[in-house]
Amino acid sequence: MAKKAVKRQKKKASTGLSNAAVIAALISIGIGCLIAYYASDSDNNAQSRKRQPEESKQQQKSHTVLSTASESKEDEFWSLPCAPQDEESFCKGNNRCGRLITDALFDEKDLFQLVNMAKKWMVYGEGSGGPTILDLHSGALSLGERFIDVYSEVKRKKDEVYDADDFAVYNRIKNTVKAMVERQFHVSENSIYLTNPTFFSSITSKPAKTLHDEYWHEHVDKITYGNFDFTCLLYLATYNEEFTGGEFQFVNDTNLEGIQPRNGRLACFSSGEENTHRVTRVESGRRFALTMGFTCDKTKAIAEPDGKRAVAHADNA
Description:
This protein is an alpha+beta fold. The chain is built from 10 helices and 15 strands. The strands form 3 sheets. Strands 2-3-12-8-15-7-4-5-6 form a 9-stranded antiparallel β-sheet, with helices on both faces. A 4-stranded mixed β-sheet has the order 1-11-10-13, with no helix packed on it. The protein has a two-stranded antiparallel sheet with strand order 9-14.
């Protein structure tokens, strides 16, 4: 992707979005807002149509697996040359580009609580196609082909969903991941920040209803999401046990390099073109994951979610 495209996308994201603005955008646009970071313009839709033959092209490439679901990895890092970066990048300095896989960070109790937290809030909605998205920072939750504010829905129904321990686990896991990124990618301590969009995803084999349900297209996170300098994926379900299909794949001109999700597996990578990637179609079951984006631009940082306060201040009209 040309530097010009990166610059255009970063400029588009540079103004930032408040939580209220995020909700408004999500409700008006639909599921693709988070899957392709508010991909509502005609350029993105045209690109999606162009990529229809993409899967057949990928099948012609050689396929290796960096990490299977049956093996345990501990802090395995692959260093890569960084793709040419936009001169406005906030991550200049000693940081490096590459990929990290580890299965050694989280205990089963925290993982169990985290996935059950996602399920508790996701019960108020479900996407019409395969993906359902939950963003606890903004309150956005997929419902059909649009988004609702899950905090408003909980307040309207007077349900007792909020659990302080759930949010404590969420924030503790986020901080552990942040420290891992700082250490492995040589980023100075406290110089990266969680950013939008950070969200849970649940993907089933339901057929796509809109172009934005087509999560399987290859993309570059720095271009798709705008704010991302580092991407981290925490898997909350295991490949070939709780779901089939849904392999994560790094994509280059000749090869696909796969990561098979495993409960508790963390995959982090620099978000530039050096890590173009996709997810194959889920064939059965339900694939759970938490996507976390990190930025070196403090103005793009987002606060930790506060479910109790969000419900209390939600609009329940």
